[in-house]
Amino acid sequence: MQFSVRLPVATHILLCIEKFQGKYKTTSTFLAGSVNVHPVIIRKTLGQLRTAGLVEVAAGVGGAKLTRSPKDITLLDVFRAVEEEEDLFHFQENPNPQCPVGRNIHRVLGTRLEKIKQHMMDDLAAITLDELLNAVNEEDVP
Amino acid sequence: MQFSVRLPVATHILLCIEKFQGKYKTTSTFLAGSVNVHPVIIRKTLGQLRTAGLVEVAAGVGGAKLTRSPKDITLLDVFRAVEEEEDLFHFQENPNPQCPVGRNIHRVLGTRLEKIKQHMMDDLAAITLDELLNAVNEEDVP
DNA sequence: ATCCATTGTAACACATATTATTACATCTAT
DNA sequence: ATAGATGTAATAATATGTGTTACAATGGAT
Questions:
Q1: Global pTM?
Q2: What's the confidence (pLDDT) of residue B38?
Q3: B87 close to B117: Cβ distance less than 8 angstroms
Q4: Does pLDDT of A60 surpass 90?
């Protein structure tokens, strides 16, 4: 079990948009060439990022740009843009209410797993696009 | 995207096994009645827990018991028993190596996401079956 | 020794989520 | 108007998760 490729792909897209701003027109086809996915996947993901207010896409003419500084965009913003808001773990629907374990498991385990998810969100919020871009620029191994 | 029901179900099973030890024979059918899943799901999960060395199952006669104290079983043990060992996020296979973002994204983003997964594992390791059982016993709302 | 409840496991069915692809209406600078 | 681009729906292919049936193997009880 692992999270889908959407967060990594969306992050890749955002990094490219910023990195190539002013140098290339960052169209879905251009971005697809770097990420190596179908341009429609790029457009769908850009749509999610646009809905989340992270990018502006030039309809018709093409190309995208960030709506704010990479310093002010975190992986949590990206995560929320492309993933559903839900519990980290899926719970069994109808445990037996006549069993002391069955009638308490969701609350007892759920509250603890919720904290773990919160930690994950905090960790994602601590990573900015700016940090990633600097790492890409500085640690580039061509 | 969320993790499957396996960790919660496996935890439920372990709690029942300990809670009802000596009072009921914890067969797959008995456990299935508390969790509310098909007995075969219970047997499969018990098989994973057995492989991980967390439980002993009495073949033929039926019933299961923990191999060690609930104090010494953490949710990380359970997680590892029922989930594959893999990255938290799935990465795109072949990003463009000629693009500075494409050729660095996996390393730059991957190392950071790996730390997040490690935090998650640490959090899971801090929760024992004993703690959960106490919570179930003490906070029981019949 | 046989019986019977139970486990272990394979096989299959089904639903859902993910990713890839095609198609096409719409948009906008030129 | 045209050309290149986006937005989005529809579809397909694949993978994963979950439910179910079936049955051989196990081991205590009789």
A1: 0.91
A2: 95
A3: yes
A4: no
Yes or no: say if B117 and A120 are a contact pair by the CB < 8 Å rule. Answer: no
Compute the nearest-CA separation of B108 from chain A (Å).
Answer: 7
**B141/A contact by beta carbon, under 8 A:** yes
Determine the residue type at A91. Answer: F
To the nearest 10 degrees (0 to 180), the angle between helices B129-138 and B6-19 is 70
Nearest to A108 among B84, B101, B139 (CB): B139
**Cα–chain-centroid distance for residue A34?**
17
Inter-residue contact B133 to B19 (CB < 8 Å):
yes
**Given pLDDT bands bounded at 50, 70 and 90, which one contains residue A117?**
very high
Tell me how many residue pairs between chain A and chain B have CB atoms under 8 A apart: 182
B116 to chain A nearest CA, in Å? Answer: 6
B122-135 confidence digits (pLDDT tens) = 999 999 999 999 99
